[in-house]
Structures are given as structure tokens and as C-alpha cells.
Write a structure and sequence with these properties.
Strand content: over 45%
Shape: flat
Largest sheet: 4 strands, antiparallel
Helix content: under 10%
Amino acid sequence: MRDAKICVNRCLWSPEGSILGVAFSKHIVQTYMFVPNGELRQQAEIDAHLGSVNDIAFSRPNKSLSIITCGDDKLIRVRLLM
């Protein structure tokens, strides 16, 4: 059975469309890599915040892909993905 206490708050594609980020109502963010055969493969699971992850965004400062998250803990966090 699925855990009804967890829901998806936001899904967002990276700027080039190869990575999907998923923010959950729990403290985690997951990233998935889109592969040419049409599959999504889980790339990373990040323990992002205390409480819910409310939103995510992607950015490419200095040509490195980063994910930006905000959560119930009132913090904004930036993590380098690649």
C-alpha cells in the first residue's frame, strides 16, 4: 500500500529537459534522469529540509546544474547536482 501521508508538492524539468526534480510533502527531493529509451531513472534522493519541501527550481550558475529548494523550515537551500 502507498503511504497516504506523503504527497508530491512540485515536479519540475531542468532547463535542458534531461532531469526531473520532485519535491515531496516530507523532507525529501528526488531527481530522475531522462534516458533516450523514454525511461526515468532515479538519480538522487536529497534530505532537503525539516518538514515539507514546498518548491524547487533549477539554475546553471557557472555552467554547473544546481537545484534550489525551499521548505517548511523557512530555509532556501542550493545544492550542486552536476
